């Protein structure tokens, strides 16, 4: 069951939401509605669901409604229409008391400009969520310190946030969000205020933490690289509406429309595409069954100068070149083992393009793609270059 | 011609109306005003004459100096000024007047803060309250100070109580305004953070908004105290005791010298109060 389920969620800012909604339903654009009614469409009938343990990224340009959407999910902003189910409970219909309970126990938020309380120490910041639940002082200290240690700030508990660097401040923000052990983290451009190096570090750290914590994370960003690094799935927003939801690969390889395509164009593909995405089917022969003769046959069929050799379980053994195979055939040697070369250059299936590039550059033969020792496919130099050039069709 | 035209309209009976209204108020609320006047007046006299006057001037001066020393971050300037200034007032035989004035200022300021801060909070939270109270505050501050003496006298006669009452009207607005402003200025993200973690309105107010607004509110309170002091001096016109009364009676008898001495006393008090309330504020910046 999804932990977050959002249905037709809509927010209209302004005095005349009814008219705006009826115009939305008739398909009018955000701009036309603003002109006609004076109301701004913040979020336009967004629907999606997030599974427990997932990092769900919401991405879009400035003003596309990301912040509004994430604030609708903990009802910092009241929805105009639609529903938000958290663990199956409809937040949009909840009374104040139950809403507070959900905010306290299930949802935590991390803010773009950190949102730390400057009059409180790091520790007092981290224990804020527990403090307002009236958890005993001892207990909340313990939890807060645990959370601070988790983000590597165990030594800074008595400093004021203003004394820390941006990266450290956001760690405090993260610790504050983790201290009351929520199921869901809402992160609104949490790393956008950090400089690129620190930002990357924080992304790694979040992924690290996530691998042990298994929270559900709703991560907002306007940066595609960040989205691709973090997201299990990505939702793209435009003018308040969600235009595509998919895994990073799906978004990259199959942009739903021009808007997404534009967004995707700028990505540094070498950091995003993996071996699996650009490999081709490998020509193989099986060690136990085949000899030089079959090897030559395969090469002739496929127009290549080598074939890979695998065993009965698809484990990669090596490769055979055309020269060696024809020499062996002339000598009437039918034993494949004599001519196998085992120094195959190989990469794991999720190796990124920029790493593959350096390997393939030095290698006289195509690079094998493997998973747990089993041969998955092969990458030829041309495919790498084509992928770097952004030629998607070629890669499929 | 033009003058004739103006004369054509008879004088409107505004004075009479005001008089009738005040008389009615006094009558109708005498059950409220009279006991306030009596008990509150007794209380203030007790503070001024029994409590403060029972402290020997030397001790009092040292206490003020100590306070000045600590709030100014262990610097000597203000402490030394307080010692010399207060000693001078005592030396000139105005100690009792000083105590009366201090009582009036303290009580008036305290009441202003007790009333003003909650009103400010209400205005920051409630659009309607803000819309209604704002113009009233403007009105309260545009009136010349001594105008407030009129209703004060009407309700409470003469003495300390009407002095405090007039001062309350005159001095409360800055505390209200600055409290309102201070809370509205708290950054949106901090308010969101408080809400996102599930704060109740009360928790948000006491754990985030008021602490964040503290500096601004203190600036308002500083202004309130200074206005209270000036009003308390003016209130000598309706019989409030203290340094102001000395200035007033010197004026009436054209005694330049003693008027000057009492005036200096007020200035010294003003400087000490101002510096102390301001530096308390700075420390938290
Ligand atoms: N309180 C508000 N009142 C009126 N309009 C608002 C309000 N908040 C947001 N909007 C409008 O809603 C739309 C979406 O804003 P939102 O802040 O959600 O965008 P965003 O994707 O988070 O942008 P950014 O990347 O700049 O943070 C914008 O057109 C914005 O002007
Ligand atoms: Mg935003």
From TrEMBL, chain A:
Catalytic reaction(s) noted: a quaternary ammonium(out) + ATP + H2O = a quaternary ammonium(in) + ADP + phosphate + H(+)
GO molecular function list: ABC-type quaternary ammonium compound transporting activity; ATP binding; ATP hydrolysis activity
Annotated keywords: Amino-acid transport, ATP-binding, CBS domain, Cell inner membrane, Cell membrane, Membrane, Nucleotide-binding, Transport
Bilayer topology: Peripheral membrane protein
Domain CBS intervals: 278-336
Record's GO cellular component terms: plasma membrane
Entry's EC annotation: 7.6.2.9
SUPFAM superfamilies recorded: CBS-domain pair, P-loop containing nucleoside triphosphate hydrolases
SMART domains: AAA, CBS
Residue ranges of domain ABC transporter in the record: 28-264
Record-linked PROSITE patterns: ABC_TRANSPORTER_1, ABC_TRANSPORTER_2, CBS
Location(s), subcellular: Cell inner membrane
InterPro entries documented for this protein: AAA+_ATPase, ABC_osmolyte_uptake_ATP-bind, ABC_transporter-like_ATP-bd, ABC_transporter-like_CS, CBS_dom, CBS_dom_sf, Gly-betaine_transp_ATP-bd, P-loop_NTPase
Membership in a protein family: Belongs to the ABC transporter superfamily.
Quaternary assembly: The complex is probably composed of two ATP-binding proteins, two transmembrane proteins and a solute-binding protein.
PANTHER family per record: GLYCINE BETAINE/PROLINE BETAINE TRANSPORT SYSTEM ATP-BINDING PROTEIN PROV, GLYCINE BETAINE_PROLINE BETAINE TRANSPORT SYSTEM ATP-BINDING PROTEIN PROV
Protein name per its UniProtKB record: Quaternary amine transport ATP-binding protein
């Amino acid at each position: 069951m999804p932990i977050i389920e959002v249905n037709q969620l809509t927010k209209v800012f302004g005095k005349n939401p009814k008219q705006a909604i009826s115009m939305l339903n008739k398909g009018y654009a955000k701009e036309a509605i603003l002109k006609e009614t004076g109301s701004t469409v913040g979020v336009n009938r967004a629907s999606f669901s997030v599974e427990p343990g997932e990092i769900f990224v919401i991405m879009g340009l400035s003003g596309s409604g990301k912040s509004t959407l994430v604030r609708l999910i903990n009802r910092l902003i009241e929805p105009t229409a639609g529903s938000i189910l958290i663990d199956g409970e409809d937040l949009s219909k909840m009374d104040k008391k139950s809403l507070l309970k959900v905010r306290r126990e299930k949802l935590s938020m991390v803010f773009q400009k950190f949102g730390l309380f400057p009059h409180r120490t790091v520790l007092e910041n981290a224990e804020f969520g527990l403090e307002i639940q009236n958890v005993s002082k001892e207990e909340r200290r313990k939890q807060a310190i645990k959370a601070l240690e988790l983000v590597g700030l165990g030594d800074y508990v008595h400093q004021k946030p203003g004394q820390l660097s941006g990266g450290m401040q956001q760690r405090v923000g993260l610790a504050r969000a983790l201290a009351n052990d929520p199921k869901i983290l809402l992160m609104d451009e949490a790393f956008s205020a950090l400089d690129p190096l620190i930002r990357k570090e924080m992304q790694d750290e979040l992924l690290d933490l996530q691998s042990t914590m298994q929270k559900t994370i709703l991560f907002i960003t306007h940066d595609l690289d960040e989205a691709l690094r973090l997201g299990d799935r990505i939702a793209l927003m435009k003018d308040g509406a969600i235009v595509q939801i998919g895994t990073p690969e799906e978004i990259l390889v199959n942009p739903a429309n021009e808007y997404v395509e534009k967004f995707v164009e700028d990505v540094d593909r070498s950091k995003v595409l993996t071996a699996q995405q650009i490999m081709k089917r490998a020509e193989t022969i099986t060690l136990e069954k085949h000899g030089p003769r079959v090897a030559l046959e395969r090469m002739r069929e496929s127009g290549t100068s080598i074939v890979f050799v695998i065993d009965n379980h698809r484990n990669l053994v090596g490769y055979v070149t055309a020269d060696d195979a024809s020499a062996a055939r002339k000598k009437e040697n039918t034993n494949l083992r004599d001519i196998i070369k085992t120094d195959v250059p190989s990469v794991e299936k999720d190796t990124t393009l920029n790493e593959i590039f350096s390997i393939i550059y030095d290698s006289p033969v195509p690079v094998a793609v493997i998973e747990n020792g089993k041969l998955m496919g092969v990458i030829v130099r041309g495919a790498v270059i084509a992928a770097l050039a952004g030629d998607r069709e070629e890669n499929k | 011609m033009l003058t004739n035209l103006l004369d054509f309209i008879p004088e409107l009976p505004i004075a009479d109306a005001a008089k009738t209204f005040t008389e009615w108020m006094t009558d109708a609320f005498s059950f409220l005003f009279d006991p306030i006047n009596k008990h509150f007046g007794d209380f203030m006299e007790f503070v001024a004459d029994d409590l403060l006057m029972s402290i020997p001037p030397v001790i009092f001066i040292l206490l003020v100096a100590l306070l000045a020393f600590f709030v100014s971050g262990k610097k000597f300037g203000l402490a030394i000024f307080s010692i010399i200034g207060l000693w001078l007032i005592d030396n000139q035989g105005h100690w009792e007047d000083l105590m009366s004035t201090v009582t009036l200022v303290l009580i008036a300021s305290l009441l202003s803060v007790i009333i003003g801060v909650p009103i400010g909070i209400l205005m920051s939270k409630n659009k309607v309250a803000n819309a209604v109270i704002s113009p009233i505050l403007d009105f309260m501050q545009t009136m010349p100070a001594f105008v407030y003496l009129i209703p004060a006298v009407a309700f409470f006669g003469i003495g300390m109580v009407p002095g405090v009452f007039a001062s309350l009207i005159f001095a409360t607005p800055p505390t209200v305004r600055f409290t309102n402003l201070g809370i509205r200025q708290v950054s949106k993200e901090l308010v969101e953070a408080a809400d996102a973690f599930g704060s109740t309105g009360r928790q948000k107010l006491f754990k985030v908004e008021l602490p964040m607004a503290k500096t601004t509110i203190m600036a308002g309170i500083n202004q309130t105290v200074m206005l209270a002091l000036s009003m308390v001096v003016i209130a000598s016109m309706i019989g409030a005791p203290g340094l102001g009364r000395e200035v007033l009676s010197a004026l009436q008898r054209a005694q330049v010298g003693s008027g000057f001495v009492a005036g200096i006393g007020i200035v010294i008090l003003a400087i000490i109060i101002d510096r102390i309330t301001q530096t308390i504020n700075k420390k938290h910046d």
